[in-house]
Amino acid sequence: MSPEPDPGHHLAPQSGHEDLVIDVQGLHKSFNGKAAVRGLDMQVKKGQIYGFLGPNGSGKTTTIRLLCGLLTPDSGSGSCLDFDILSESDEIKRQVGYMAQHFSLYDDLSVRENLDFVARVYQIKNRQQVVTKTIEDLGLVDRAGQLAGQLSGGYKQRLALAACTIHSPKLLLLDEPTAGVDPKARREFWDQIHDLTDRGLTVLVSTHYMDEAERCHAIAYLAFGQLLAQGRVKDVIEQSDLTTWTVDGGSQASRLMELARVLGASKGVDMVAPFGTVLHVSSSDRTALEAAIQPYRGDADLVWKETAPTLEDVFIHLMSTQEQGGQSQ
User: What is the phi-psi region of residue 57: left when phi exceeds 0, alpha when psi lies from -120 to 50, beta otherwise?
Assistant: First the structure.
């Protein structure tokens, strides 16, 4: 086992890991005796969009704040942007952009005035030129003189992104940034995020949306403060070892819901989830699952098909498993 880094000294990049923006080991954080993060190990490469998934209270926000120096871990070690997370948090903060869950700019200032204020805080040189360019880059020219409080959810989101990138950070931390905005605004937001990573920015984002998770280069699933799975979406799905069958009930909605109740209580079935007129039935035990559905395979009103599990199947499976484990602790 390698020695723990001295928290009093700057961490040099590890050999062979020069492209790591985040490299942490064994992070723990508790509040009032309740663990929010437990033994977190994580590595994030430069230029990645790294997504956090997990139910409310799973530790996503706490993890983000630990990584950017807003919180100090109770134990553990590591680096962010080649700075020690324990002793050099001020240096980390200067190179990080943080976008909170809730809009945190001034409603009674215009778009330009908000960005000018943020630029003053960061003591940005050529402030007016930088503000103007930021407004142009994020498509806010037509809204530059509008009060922030009068913006739609999508434009507020765009303004918040402009504010946390105006100082040209190397790492962007986004805490459920698209909650409450429409699908078109969400897609435009993600297009902007990919543009930023193409320029070398690294992004950590927490989300509940599966389509957003699938746009990340890598994801991590957290529950009860623990990291349960991480990697590319494809790898996380494969490593889940789930077998999934879909059953299409057509117009037989009541029949399908009855089947969902029966299968949900069957031995060997880990998850039953309705998607319109289709049920997804999954299990980590292929033999037990096939035995559970066998009595219904001959029903002429039902169309059965084995399919690859979706990320949502894996998400629901992990969440259900952890809820059961959490309740038994």
Answer: left
